[in-house]
Amino acid sequence: MYTFLSVIQVIMSVILIFLILLHSGKDAGLSGAFGIGGGGSSLGGGSMVERNLDRATVFFALLWVANTFVLLKI
Prior knowledge:
single chain; mainly alpha; 2 helices
């Protein structure tokens, strides 16, 4: 069980790093390369995409923290 949760932890860590790098910073960051930042896009505007990106990041961060606590208790 510990090995399975450890593998899940590594996968969630990679996903979380990718989601954090997609956020736009002061200089539009990596999200500008994928068309997420900026005004009008074909996905309904940058604000909706950024809001969903924020939600996904928070969701995976909470899963990561919960999995960390479970790994510490095992």
